[in-house]
Recover the amino acids of this structure.
């Protein structure tokens, strides 16, 4: 526990004692009074509230709050959601969720989306402002305009297939808005590259969770619980800590590489990776036709064994073993299991993604400039 001495707070970290400062100290002092940041009063009044968003919430929340009514006043909606302080002031959660222009009161309450060709070449920038309900939609649309989409007919239904599952993108955006440390002056930042998306928000994981916990079932520790509760009632999230695992599951269902979660640069990031397991990409790695055929098999079936490799390629066990080892060494596949239970599933192509993705992006752009017919471009 932190201790106070001469007006400063100190905390033990390993074998040293360090002074607490910045947002860490602010959150600690807020918690000492049994509060969270989003429960503190704002300087806004009801003239600063966007009634169309309040009405939208009423409609969205009706499934989980059957008693909510169209005729409920904004004061009643806010009171029932604990968005007013004891003396009737609008909380910071209420301002962020329903304000017309929350960034006028909280300068970092915005999301910045950029389309990046390289780490220094920026093709497009969109700043999504407004309340959190508006930011969700504006941010997702700002990302989608830089993605490719194709469609498949399943039965009699047309299904759009984007580069990434849109629901996974939406989930990551909502998580960033809910868990952002709004004491930080930094905005939420999202960078869309040819082959990946990087999403970052200020504020690290709660001390109760590790990065490994995020890819399995875990408890929920929202940094801004009032914001999280309203999003839950609106049907945007579940309050079970299932969002990060759902992102992983959605990517796997679309045969995409597993996303990465990281604590970096004073915040938390989500890395989504595009499907680089196409024949065009794999040929760049100088793979044999039978190896490419095996990768396509894994994309469809989820995994492959040595015996299945032999069967689909009509080759020997030793050749199959050598081919599979090459695929593992190039991070195309990863080996699972032991002994007779060994199988192979999709891996992560590591640094090859960046090189190949950049090269493919150049080829597409060059082709487009020459008037060639390139399908599913959708690239900003």
């Amino acid at each position: 526990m932190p201790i106070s001495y001469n007006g400063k707070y100190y905390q033990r970290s390993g074998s040293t004692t360090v002074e607490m400062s910045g947002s860490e100290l602010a959150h600690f002092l807020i918690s000492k009074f049994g509060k969270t940041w989003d429960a503190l009063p704002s300087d806004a009044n009801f003239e600063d509230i966007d009634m169309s968003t309040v009405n939208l919430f009423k409609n969205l929340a009706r499934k989980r709050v059957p008693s909510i009514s169209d005729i409920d006043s904004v004061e009643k909606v806010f009171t029932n959601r604990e968005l007013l302080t004891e003396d009737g002031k609008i909380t910071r959660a209420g301002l962020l969720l329903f304000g017309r222009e929350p960034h006028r009161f909280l300068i970092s309450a915005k999301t910045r989306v950029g389309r990046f060709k390289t780490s220094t070449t920026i093709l497009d920038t969109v700043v999504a402002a407004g309340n959190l309900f508006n930011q969700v939609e504006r941010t997702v649309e700002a990302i989608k305009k830089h993605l490719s989409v194709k469609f498949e007919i399943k039965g009699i239904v047309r299904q759009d297939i984007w580069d990434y599952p849109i629901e996974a993108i939406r989930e990551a955006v909502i998580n960033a808005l809910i868990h952002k440390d709004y004491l930080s002056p930094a905005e939420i930042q999202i960078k869309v590259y040819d082959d990946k998306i990087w999403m970052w928000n200020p504020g690290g994981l709660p001390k109760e969770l590790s990065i490994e916990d995020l890819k399995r079932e875990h408890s929920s520790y929202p940094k801004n619980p009032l914001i999280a509760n309203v999003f839950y009632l609106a049907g945007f999230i579940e309050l079970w800590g299932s969002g990060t695992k759902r992102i992983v599951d959605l990517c796997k269902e679309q045969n995409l590489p597993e996303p990465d979660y990281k604590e970096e640069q004073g915040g938390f990031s989500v890395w989504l990776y595009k499907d680089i397991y196409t024949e065009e990409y794999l040929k760049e790695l100088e793979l044999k036709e039978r190896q490419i055929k095996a990768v396509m098999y894994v994309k469809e079936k989820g995994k492959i064994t040595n015996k299945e490799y032999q069967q689909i390629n009509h080759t020997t066990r030793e050749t199959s073993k050598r081919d599979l080892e090459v695929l593992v060494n190039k991070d195309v596949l990863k080996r699972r299991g032991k002994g007779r239970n060994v199988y192979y599933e999709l891996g992560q192509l590591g640094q090859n993604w960046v090189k190949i993705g950049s090269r493919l992006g150049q080829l597409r752009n060059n082709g487009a400039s020459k008037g060639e017919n390139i399908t599913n471009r959708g690239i900003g």
About this structure: Confidence is low (pLDDT under 50) at residues 350-365, 367-380.
